[in-house]
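agent: user wants the full assembly modeled, not chains individually. Plan: 1) parse entity lines 2) check alphabet per entity 3) run joint structure prediction 4) return tokens. Steps 1-2 passed, two entities, 942 residues total. Proceeding.
--- entities ---
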Amino acid sequence: MKRYRSVLLLELRNFLRSKTVQMGTIGVLAFAFYSFLHANQVIDQQEQTITSVPSVQKNHLQQVVTHGTGKVAGTTAYYPFFYTVNPPAPWARFALGQRDIYPYTLKVKMLAIEGQLYDSELTNPLTLLAGNLDAAFVFLFLLPLLIIALTYNVISEEQETGVWNILHTSTTHVGQTVAGKLLVRLGVLLLLTFAVFTAACLSLQLPFTGPTFQLLLVVLIYVLFWFTMAALIVSFGKRSSFNATALICVWIFLTILLPGIATIVVSSSVPVPEASETAIRQREGYHAKWDQPKKATMEKFYAVYPQYRHYPIPDHTFSPGWYYAMQFSGDLDSKHASEQLFEKLSQRQSLSETMSWFNPVIAAQQALNKVANTDLESHVRYLQSVKAHHRQIREYFYPHIFEDTPTEHLDWAGYPPYQPVGYVSEFPAAGILAILGWSFACLALAFVLFKRNFLTIKNLSHD
Amino acid sequence: MHLHYIKLIARQEWNAIFRGRNTRILYFSLLAVSLLAMITGWQYVGKFNRQQATAHQQVYDQWMSQPDRHPHRVAHYGYLVFREKSPLSFFDFGLDSYVGNAVFLEAHRQNTINLSEASFSNGMLRFGELSMALVLQLLVPLLIIFIGFPTIAGLKQNGVLKILLCQRASYFDLLVGKTAGLTAAIWILFLPLILISLFVGSFFLSGKIGVDNTLRILIIVSSYAVYFLSIVLLVVGVSAVSRSAKQALMALVFGWILFIIIIPKSAQTLGSRLYEAPNKIAFEQAIEAEMSQQGDSHNPNDPHFAQLKADLLKKYGVDSVQALPLNYGAFVMKESETITSTLFNKHFDRLIGTYRSQNAVSTAFGFADPFLAIRNLSMNLSGTDFDSFTAFQQQTERYRYEKSQRLNEIHLTQIQYRNDSQQKVGADHWQRMPDFTFQPLSIAANLSAAGISLAALVCWVLAGFGALYYISTKRHFQL
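--- prediction returned ---
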């Protein structure tokens, strides 16, 4: 046992001395630090913008009130925007996910909501295409490459240099030796992962709470998966160049081809014409009301807000109450299309969750984005909260609109404040299970193949 | 240089490639993937464009069947424009999934172009979408690497190189011959495929193949030919300086990762760091701040509009706006539309300028990374690039402005100031207005934007041959 330990130590020293290990580690570390820098900058900018919102809101409202002085609230109510914000969770710095795409400071007027919900952020589309550079990217894309570079020639190199034959004749513990070589690599890789992750925690200022450990768990299991995959390819007992080629092909297949096909399948099998339809219906639903009898529009409004029935609505002239009832009708008319749109979005989500069972890379990405609250589900939660806020605002101002309160007598900033969604913690169990399942499958297969390709040859030579 | 030997070596390399079993396996898997990419891309674009056309037809019909209305009502009823994908976009998706697909055009307001595919997708999109261009840009180079890595290094390892060099052929002849053989094989395997797919695909999408599309297709095919050549030169060069085939393979795979992942991402993040673009709030605040200086029609005490009113009253020699022969409300709106639109365009052009500067960093990196060069070139020619999208934004904004001003003109002349909101105008007034049709960028405009990327690719080829020549003169690369 003592000898085995010293062999392991020797192997470790040899391994750590190799250029690939040193260069690879330095490369990954350098890139990781650049990614921390970038992710911090992206999130810092978003937080800065979010911090500026209250003062922008205050000035805006003041200006609206100044301009509206002397008019009734119903006239002034057309102008103000009400801002909402979707602050990033602390873990968004680790996995930026879709935060660069989705808007995070939506502003709404008291008009129909459906036309305002899908406003996009101003961004450079080429930057979006190039994609984000964050810790998740380093772990998902680059670390597997390092794992491949460090393990592809674990046995084949010895065979190619002739060491393997000497080993075969001098020891009876070939299995132990192979296991030792692999374990040294696994140990170093896990240590490196842990080190990069710790660096990420420190420079991204991740709190030491549950979600951080969930991220760590996903990353460690993901490393384990790639290691077992590398072991599986090595267990075929082929030459180094075959191992390298095969592993690179697996990497491309899992990180580029399969997700690339999956994306097209998702966007073309669950198209969202409802998005356009919602916009068309809302616009038509609202504008058609101008040319229709006022009573029908008002009845739809009273069905939800019966308390305003006693306010008179003049039949032949414009009145603010009628105007906001028309806007409300626009939303009612597009309600079905809007619900279908959200239904489609959750279909897309569940379709990609199904796909992640077949691809550990997708599974890991979805798990990280889920923990970081930077996925589609989090954004949908934000959109729902904007809708809820829009309703609160309408309901705060409706009494003043129907009462014809003068603009200057109304507390324009007194509406219920917007409540951000807040962090939703959800353990990414399915993703972790998927990656674990794949790891075990690879490991089992590798074990069988090792036995057949490396250990039985020795028995044959004994015969 | 001995042309005879170069031909001989090229033919020998060609034969070796087509004899290899691995080549066949790799080629047929790539062929399958590219056909899959082509068919799914083609179906997707067709379906999407039909969806957009249906939405457009619906909006157009609604516009035409409006009853008699007050012109300002019509200005707020507005118009919805749906972006269709270009006929070659099935080949290269480019930025299509990241840019908006629909925009609501109304008076006084410049809305963003919304409903992008990315805004309705979860993170999976960020792995990239499988298009034929992706296969050609990423995977074909990898195929070249897998076929070509031992081309010289292998000869060194088994000692054949020394024997070859003792014959009359020079080392440079050998390198050029290998390059020619490998390039010819790759061209035969892929260029006809691209050519046929592009012609067939765009014919079935748009029902015709115009001169413009034919030209685009030919330039795309030649660009990919140059791209493949530059990759072959790289592979032969690296193989020639490597001591062993394994070393060549590792270096090439590392270079590939550098070229397709690390440099593109780093270049773009560098660009957005160097030229910081305002976010939406900052952008809107800047416009608002300038507007309150120039003239804000919603501000009852605005000096610009007060002056305008005084001038107008003086011009017509009346003492109240009610006595004017034109509708004063419409007059204010018309003036205000001009001010806001000019201001918006100024800020928007500046924003686009910032984005262009950011993207120029990536373009410049084309000289360090042939993948970036072909990516830009291919997007440009397929009409899925930044400029094409910007042209859409600018054309919709111009259309919005013209439509709003036409409606203001009707308001100005045909609606009395007194009891303004009670009046209506015949529906024929807006039925006569032209529909929006997107004018795609001309091939010349696309090419001039892609000029630097094209130059970068040509530089790669020249530098490649230069490097091969340099390698051939160094004795230690022959051992």
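agent: reporting back. Chain B touches chain A through 95 residues (CB under 8 Å). The beta strands of chain B are 79-82, 102-106, 109-110.
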